[in-house]
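Z., the sequence and structure:
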Amino acid sequence: MLKIDANYTDYRDDTDPDYPFGKAIPASTTDSTDGTPWLDKMFNDLHGARTAIFKKAFGNTRQPLNIPDNIENSDTLDAILKLIQDAFSLRLFSVEISGTETVVNWETLGVSYDPEKRYAAIATPLGNYEEFLPFGTECKNDGLHIYPRRLINGKIVPGTRHKKWGTRKWGIGKWNDYDTMRVNLQFQEIL
């Protein structure tokens, strides 16, 4: 990400706190060269959004590289990846699920649920469950709902594995009872 500083142009504003890495200024007339014509608002919008992402991710701990982003070095991509990492780094759970739907109550997750907020959840099987597809999740007033599903013979089948008669690989129980399984659950409120 470029800083709009003396290395870039003399026609800039370094004093606006909303643009800590500088911002473009408009030209005094459409024919003048003392600023950026009508593009200053568009340029500042793009640069302001990238600056906001960067500052949210790194605060004052890192400065932009001051070179254009490319596929090898991208301040913007680094910032987005850091925000994602931070969002999931502290909220990893291992929970037990069974059947076609399991509800994990908000107290278990340490969350005071607010339907106006946004949340992100990723549930993945813990162990060797190759037939499982990504699990669906849904936030409701009573908790986080997890919907396991499997791919069996080309068909999507809801639910965890069924128990077998007697003592077998997947547990003890009646035929068609759902077995339990543990899943890794990453959960975070999105700001």
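Strands lie at 12-13, 23-24, 92-98, 102-104, 118-125, 136-140, 143-147, 149-152, 155-158, 180-190. The mean pLDDT is 82.

Let me know what you think.
H.
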